[in-house]
Amino acid sequence: MIPQVLTIAGSDSGGGAGIQADLKTFQELNVFGTSVITAVTAQNTTGVQAVYPMSASAVESQLASIGNDFTISAVKTGMLFDHEIIEVVAAAVRKYGFRKLVVDPVMIAKGGASLLQEKAVEALVQKLIPLAKVITPNIPEAEVLTGESIRNMEDRLRAADDLLSMGAECVILKGGHAEESDAWDLVVRGTEKYVVKSNRLHTQNTHGTGCTFSAALTAELAKGKTIRESAYLAKCFIYQAIKQDLHIGNGHGPTNHWAYQESARHLTGGGVIVEPVVLSRHS
Ligand SMILES: Nc1ncnc2c1ncn2[C@@H]1O[C@H](COP(=O)(O)OP(=O)(O)O)[C@@H](O)[C@H]1O
Ligand SMILES: Cc1ncc(COP(=O)(O)OP(=O)(O)O)c(N)n1
Fold it and tell me: Which domain holds residue 61?
């Protein structure tokens, strides 16, 4: 049976991030995508012009439609906007027995627009993160969640341990916002620690990288891959999506969701490697 997956996220009218990025990624990775919309954003490559959150009951009723019918193999969350939506989502994860939950703690869009109310961070930490198989913060999100600034590899390792203590099985601390010449993501699961890395690509067309990465991770987990395999494949997917950029719009353009199918699939990783954490190399 084809794996069925669910994204619980906001709509990006520009098609590069949110629900649209997730469904495109699911399609490319051969899983059947369903969606629960938490907010509608008026958004394009130059930024977010407006945010229209859904009511918690509208989210609850979409979750019931999915939970009562589909056999969901993995779920991801993106933009959740407020604490009421987070509470409804956490209750549904329990009620419908959604397994393999990937929490992408989306907070702020690249242009600076807030996609999560400040007072909802507590609900994310208390209610949703403890249910997660994997959480995928970027560096600024990890700083908000832990209350610590992150400047080097030691900070990242400490932040990942703090995040793990919130109850998720695994943390993937993404490195897109760092300044190293490589773009690498730190994966920590219990005592297992490694980095998944590629060279850093120089392009402004990186809108929706986090959504696309976490959707690819969710798709691979749904197919029964391990976290390590899924992190590697998701990184291969996003690497090609950034590398073969599309030049759409006038600002930060979307990534190319076709790219991986078109070429990288036939390469071994296309330049992505997994290696152990070595402080002197990654500090
Ligand atoms: N310029 C880049 N070159 C290569 N990979 C990148 C680049 N920017 C981001 N990535 C990768 O894209 C994924 C999303 O990372 P990040 O940009 O940190 O997330 P977010 O979109 O949530 O801010 C990660 O796997 C990261 O390593
Ligand atoms: C509706 C919606 N959800 C999430 C985001 C943020 O997506 P992300 O992948 O973190 O990409 P950037 O916004 O950083 O480009 C969004 N913008 N809209």
Answer: 4-282
Domain count, the chain: 1
DSSP for 150-167, please give it: --SHHHHHHHHHHHHTTT
> Is the whole model's pTM more than 0.90, yes or no?
yes
Question: Which CATH number belongs to the domain containing residue 42 in this structure?
Answer: 3.40.1190.20
Catalytically active residues are 174, 206, 208-211
Q: What is the pLDDT of residues 233-266, one digit of tens each?
A: 999 999 999 999 999 999 999 999 999 988 755 5
Q: With a threshold of 0.95, tell me whether the complex ipTM lies above it.
A: yes
User: Is any atom of ligand 2 closer than 6 Å to the C-beta of 205?
Assistant: no
Q: How many CB atoms lie within 10 A of CB 67?
A: 17
Q: Is 22 in the pocket of ligand 2 (CB under 6 A)?
A: no
DSSP 125: I
Task: Output the CA torsion 236→79→15→32 (10° steps).
Answer: 60
